[in-house]
What we know:
Blueprint: E1 2-3, E2 6-8, E3 11-13, E4 20-25, E5 30-36, H1 40-58, H2 62-78, H3 80-91, H4 95-119, E6 124-125, E7 132-140, E8 143-147, H5 153-166, E9 170-174, H6 181-187, H7 190-193, E10 200-202, H8 207-216, E11 220-226, H9 229-238, E12 245-249, E13 254-258, H10 264-276, E14 286-292, H11 296-308, H12 328-343, E15 347-350, E16 371-374, E17 391-397, H13 400-408, E18 412-413, E19 415-419, H14 423-432, E20 437-440, E21 455-456, E22 459-460, H15 465-471, E23 473-481
Helix pairs in contact: 1-8, 2-4, 3-4, 4-5, 10-11
Amino acid sequence: MMELQNLIGGEMMNSESGxxxxxxxxATGKIFSRIPxxxxxxxxxxxxxxxxxxxxxxxxxxxxxxxxLRRLGALIATHSEALIAAESQDxxxxxxxxxxxxxxxxxxxxxxxAGAIEHFASEVHIPGGSEFIHYTHRKPIGVVGxxxxxxxxxxxxxxxxxxxxxxxxxxxxxxxEVTPVTAWMLSEWxxxxxxxxxxxxxxHGLGGEAGRALVEHPLVKAISFTGGTQTGAEITxxxxxxxxxxxxxxxxxxxxxxxxxxxxxxxxxxxxxSSFANQGQICLCxxxxxxxxxxxxxxxxALVNKAxxxxxxxxxxxxxxxxxxxxxxxxxxxxxxxxSAVGQGATVLCGGGAAPAPNDxxxxxxxVQPTILEGLGPECNINQEEIFGPVITLQRFxxxxxxxxxxxxxxxxxxxxxxxENLSKAHRVAGLVESGIAWIxxxxxxxxxxxxxxxxxxxxxxxxxxxxLRFFTEPQSVCxxxx
Length: 483
Ligand code: NAD
């Protein structure tokens, strides 16, 4: 059985307690690896290693920091086949998705922030008629914590550590205990990429133990977190009064707003993807599809027809488009929501339960059918709570105003998609929807320079581009006479 280790101060090591957590392959339900069950002592060692490395790393020329990131990106490319297989095995996602999205994007994240730090500049204010100039010195913060979820494991892990390291911070990172493997693989290549010992540390373990110890450590001055809204709230409570910088990327209940004047074929095809990609386990997935009355039946039937053709398969099969849900617990949560919807009077248009195992190897895997529900009002829990699985609901609207009201009838505000060929309506609706991201006639198109994040209970702060570098630096205003 594969045994993962923490990376602390340049050394791969077990947890101080010697305790382990089992790691399960979602497609088979079998334990295939174990990870250190780290606690406060391990976090303490990692934070001290990071603190020791900070003066050296933060004063390393930015070109050299960028070169380390690029070398790590190149190592991801070299090992991409192993990473693709590992991500699929650990998460249940199809290898085709890990190949097309997760692993190339992880490499891109490192390269992108290597480039970003080379172009990062700060402000100078030279007031006319004044004998003083003011410049903003953006300094690395020190030791920072990066905590990532299981749905896009290496993708989101690198999305955090890359800007943190580029800006000159030393990092203690905690990947999800549910999908720890690719972060562990990456930690094996850190020295080869040229990072000095202690600049980058990885701690494995449970959120409530290792994660919490990292969040409450007084020397960790900033926490970049992606995960559930409840965990985000807990991190906010834990750090109350500690004055840490927090970046919180949380859950969503994203609307897809389909107007009658949309390009039907494109809207249906993309809504299938935005609903069911990664088994619906992307924070940006559409989960509430709002359809204008005059197109409702046509759109619904076309969507259901396509969804019925998706068969969850063995994630290791290169032809599989939908894999397994990440854990038995998560599968049960998703199935519980479907049952509750039916209990509340929802009509199941397709799916509605566990999917049959695609083969003998996967007979104990966690497969759920793509499920489309209709007939429930906006107030019902199925339309309010994040399900985070291959389950969407359809709702009908009669006017633009009603569409916007339905879209905004949520505590969440992460992403929205808007389908219409009317350009001014598209811009108007995008402006009125309460979300951090709005996609018009497309979905999941990302430019890494743009701000990424949510409003309302979907988060605080923005990642991406210079926003991330600003988060991972502390601005100091310096004032100096001109003569
Ligand atoms: P989670 O909140 O359970 O866990 C996320 C990470 O936080 C894990 O590493 C976990 O170990 C750690 N953690 C848990 N409790 C902690 C605590 N008390 N203190 C510190 N760390 C703790 O989330 P998850 O189930 O892994 O991921 C799914 C959630 O993530 C969904 O809600 C999804 O919408 C959200 N998500 C959001 C974004 C975004 O960009 N907004 C992206 C991906 C996923």
